[in-house]
Amino acid sequence: MKTLYLLRHAKAEATARQGDVGRPLAKRGHKAAAAMGDFLAGLAPPPALVLCSPSVRTRETLDWILSGIKPTPRIVFDDRLYLADARLLRDVLRELPESVGAVLVVGHNPGMHELAARLVKDSSELTDGFQTAALAVIEIPDPWQRLPWRESKLALYRTPRDISRDLDS
Prior knowledge:
Blueprint (H helix, E strand, L loop, with lengths): L1 E7 L18 H15 L7 E4 L3 H11 L7 E4 L8 H9 L7 E6 L3 H9 L15 E6 L12 E6 L1 H9 L1
Parallel strand pairs: 1-4, 2-3, 2-4
Antiparallel strand pairs: 1-5, 5-6
Helix pairs in contact: 1-2, 1-5, 3-4
């Protein structure tokens, strides 16, 4: 069984002088990414590998969440992940060696939402989209190289708002 963590970047500023790729996180994004990092640190298995889009907002999101992941995973910034669609994201995942049991992908919508919805048998929990800093945990029964549509299980989907509610109860 493989574990795929899909994390959409946290809330970013609306514009940046460097264009879309250079948009940094907004203040709200920093808080959400920190909360998601704390939450992710409590999940098992920890990701052995992180695949991250090279955009400023995905890198900053990753910086906020990395402190809680032990042991520190190997990190790969992959230009193909910037605004990638579901097919390209799946193609990248199919390149993973089978020795990687758990991977975290930090990326963008709409590709992250499309990938999650297409991989899992039941995507009803994802009908409202994939909010900023949302995390989907997908259990994959197949080898990475196969990674078919509609055969995996959505084990968990959480947003920063869900986590703050969980902490309140």
